[in-house]
Amino acid sequence: MTSPVDPSRAQALAALGLGSAAMIVIGLQPLLLGEIVDHQTALLAAIAEMMALAVAVVLCALLLKPTNLRAWAGGASAVCVAAGLGLMSHEAAAVIPLRILAGLAGGVLIWITVGTIARQARPEPWAAAFFLIQSAGQVFAAAMAVALGPSGALLLAAGLSTLGIGLAFLCPPTLTELGRPSRAPSAKGWIALAALLLYFAGNSSLWFQMRPLSTIQGLGQLSGTIILVTLAAQMVGAMAAIALADRLRRRTLFVIVVATGLTALWLLNSRPPAPAFIAAFGLAAFAALLLGASLFGILNAADPSRRAGAISPAAQFTAAAFGPIAGLGGLGPQDGLGVSALLFVAAWICAFMSLPHVAKPQTAA
């Protein structure tokens, strides 16, 4: 088996910036599209983009050798710029095709970033940084987009994609092949990916119901506070993932994640007062980042070849589309909480099926 080799620190940081910029632009799309199309079309565009991202990551991971990465990164970033500028025409009919194109190109960028993280000796700090940069970046970029207005916001998104062209020249030119003769994950790797997909689908459903839940309970004015609290909770979750990486069994860590998520759902179902309502979403954000920053360790434990880790964004993007899909299907807030609970429990079952019985997680050499 080929041992994973780290790119240089500068190259890894460039790859991290490449993927973070792409994710910030993706996170801006609901705000940008709200100025161009109606709510339902914006939801359909979001679903189409998430699925395009997932498909692109899978195809890259399974079919492409990790070579000529700078050319791939530069070309994909240029396509993202073109797709972003195309929205300035404000042609409603072009929105979904443009977001699919951007999703396919963005998937190439995420494949490069995650492939670089997957090959780190300790992927948890890199994964934590990746999630935190994109989370904080989306909050600040959204504030800037509101201040700049519709046209300025579209130019901001295109500018962030242009940053990727510059970072492409600093990314690793190639990465070593991972350990299996096949490019596909092992059977247990696929089950572990299913665990992540199920958990993040439940999380997506929960967050999609945040505004309806707050409105029903007369707490609609809390959205801004919830965003700030969840950003802080995400930072704590990421730091906890780094601190616990070499101290807890992967199964135990997954139990903590699921128990925290279920506690958040229980609080929200009890029609809590404002402080508990905010705390519930803080718990959900903590659990999501604890899992997100730990996912490479979890997947590497299930599939030591690291193939599952390299393909993990496909599970996350597919899961992210679940919330909007459930919303379009008419899933109400209370039913949404029940669905999230079922998905969390199903994720826990898949995690126990795929993760080995080990005293402590094994740190990669």
Distance between the termini: 13 Å
Radius of gyration: 19 Å
Largest sheet: none
Task: Output the number of helix runs.
Answer: 13
Percent helix, as a range, is over 70%
Give the strand tally. Answer: 0
Shape: globular
Arithmetic mean of pLDDT: 87
Secondary structure category = mainly alpha
Runs in which pLDDT lies below 50 for 5 or more consecutive residues are: 361-365
Strand content: under 5%
- How would you spell out the order of helices and strands? HHHHHHHHHHHHH
Main attributes?
365 residues, mainly alpha, 13 helices, disordered C terminus
Itemize the secondary structure elements and their pairings.
Elements: H1 9-33, H2 39-63, H3 69-86, H4 92-118, H5 123-168, H6 187-208, H7 210-216, H8 223-244, H9 250-269, H10 274-302, H11 307-320, H12 322-328, H13 333-354
Helix pairs in contact: 1-2, 1-4, 1-5, 2-4, 2-11, 2-12, 3-4, 3-5, 4-11, 5-8, 5-10, 6-10, 6-11, 6-12, 6-13, 8-10, 9-10, 9-13, 10-11
Tell me about this structure.
Mean pLDDT is 87; it is low at 361-365. The two termini are 13 Å apart. The protein has helices at residues 9-33, 39-63, 69-86, 92-118, 123-168, 187-208, 210-216, 223-244, 250-269, 274-302, 307-320, 322-328, 333-354. It is mainly alpha-helical and 365 residues long.
Briefly summarize what is shown:
The chain has 365 residues and is an all-alpha fold. The chain contains 13 helices and no strands.
